[in-house]
């Protein structure tokens, strides 16, 4: 856990993988569940979803053998996160709701806060902003009662997402800044990188490109150190968009073309094609982006996919 918090992803994966056969030999189901969950979450960050699902399911099987309700709730929550990330919202909601029920039964306040927060994320991704805000505020209040600094920062940033989505940019900035102050104090690199990129996006929207560039440089460094695929993608995409706005169109387009081979998943490909179309005006890029977003929306009712598709079809 210490290695993971320090952003040493490769060392953490190696340590977890080394521990698993030893725990099997000892029939230590409790620790096997913890280690398998940790490894599954790391593979999620790295974009290796096949390995992630395998280890997260192994973790649930292991902790179910112990009968420990808190551990079972954690394993269910991790699988809920997996399904949420894959855009399988019904499965995600089912797992988060089971987690919430167990945590309420055993009076596990942090579990209630986190599972309620995840349900808020699913609301948010489907464009249900008021429902998301209510969940986040409940989770934030519980986290403050508990005193969990990391969770407080996460839910503040979640509220920032809602504020940004309804164009309350300064309120979003303030929520994120409060979260960043907390995360810097506890040196949590993973969430620092994620939330700094949110601040870059806000300043980009406002047209404050110089401040956006300064923030992006720091976020880039943190994102590379934690090896989170989504953080790295968002950082590189924002960098290309900034280059374009600052008059470096050829550099920006070249950067996006390079990203096509580095990020093969449809959700990344669609966003890259969208911005290639915006930068070049090429009809082929538009057609590809439309096709990808229609395919994505058939599987996942994500409000951002709908927004991108609407922009493409209205042009």
Automatic annotation (TrEMBL):
Pfam families cross-referenced by the UniProt entry: TPR_MalT
Domain MalT-like TPR region, chain residue ranges per copy: 41-302
InterPro entries per record: TPR-like_helical_dom_sf, TPR_MalT, TPR_rpt
Membrane-spanning ranges: none
UniProt-recorded name of the protein: MalT-like TPR region domain-containing protein
Listed Gene3D superfamilies: Tetratricopeptide repeat domain (1.25.40.10)
Organism: hydrothermal vent metagenome
